[in-house]
Specification:
Structural class: alpha+beta
Number of strands: 7
CATH class of one domain: Alpha Beta
Number of helices: 7
Strand content: 5-15%
Distance between the termini: 176 Å
Strand order of the largest sheet: 2-4-5-7-6
């Protein structure tokens, strides 16, 4: 006898049921690569600025320490009245009428000497002013180095070192170069000095060029303009003081003596 057939239907059903319960298999999917970080934006580097070809402002040359020989001084310094005889002079340091109260060493004659270039420029200032009925009166020009040393010694003797500190008196003066001049304006008709607010060699703020009003301010600025037109530069602390610049200045100690033809 053939064995009875097994329950095929239930087995088939069981297989179907197991297949339904099994987790579905999905093909593996490779993850997408993470996006690359964004590149930092490029910042343009500015091109270096071209070097300036303009010359930097140049101030007056420093006063050298060395003293040039007298022969050199005699060849470079000239009497301002030889340039223009109408320039008035009142050389205070050749008299006791100054802040020291005595004639300063090196002033053996009341003459005003300047470097040839500065003297020529001063002559042009005088010519321009003369057309307006005014002129120059000069208190000091070239100053021997020994006279400057005497001023400095005086400040220490009377305990007025503040004059050195505040710039009214210099241990190395441009006067020693023949490149500084102290002066004022005069009315040519009367010979009287124009109002400037203070006397020459007043060591106070009242003498500062800009520290003035009214007629005094007008006269100070008139002097500054006339001198500036020919290359002179005013010292702000002293309305009367002006300097001139030349290449390679030299320092002198030549004694100021009477002119040879006097």
């Amino acid at each position: 006898m053939r064995p009875p057939a097994g329950p095929r239907a239930p087995v088939a059903a069981l297989l179907v049921l197991l297949g339904a319960c099994a987790p579905a298999l999905t093909p593996a999917v490779e993850p997408a690569p993470a996006p690359a970080p964004a590149a930092a934006p490029r910042v343009a580097t500015p091109a270096p600025a071209p070097a300036s070809t303009a010359a930097a402002p140049v101030g007056p040359a420093a006063v050298p320490d060395a003293i040039a020989p007298d022969a050199v001084a005699e060849s470079l310094l000239v009497d301002v009245q030889r340039v223009d005889s109408t320039i008035a002079v009142d050389v205070r340091y050749a008299t006791p009428y100054n802040f020291v109260g005595a004639v300063l060493p090196g002033y053996d004659a009341p003459r005003v000497l300047l470097r040839r270039e500065a003297a020529a420029a001063l002559g042009r200032v005088q010519a321009a002013l003369r057309a307006e009925g005014v002129g120059l009166r000069v208190f000091d020009g070239y100053r021997p180095a020994r006279a400057t040393a005497a001023m400095v010694d005086w400040t220490r003797r009377v305990r007025r070192e503040d004059l050195l500190r505040d710039g009214y008196i210099a241990e190395r003066s441009r006067h020693n170069l023949g490149l500084a001049v102290d002066l004022t304006l005069v009315d040519l008709a009367s010979g009287r000095e124009l109002k400037m607010g203070t006397a020459f060699d007043t060591f106070s703020r009242a003498a500062h060029t800009a520290n003035a009003t009214g007629e005094t301010a007008v006269n100070r600025q008139r002097l500054v303009r006339a001198m500036r037109a020919e290359g002179f530069v005013n010292l702000p602390e002293e309305w009367w003081h002006f300097s001139y610049d030349v290449p390679d200045p030299l320092r002198f100690d030549l004694v100021i003596r009477p002119a040879r033809d006097e």
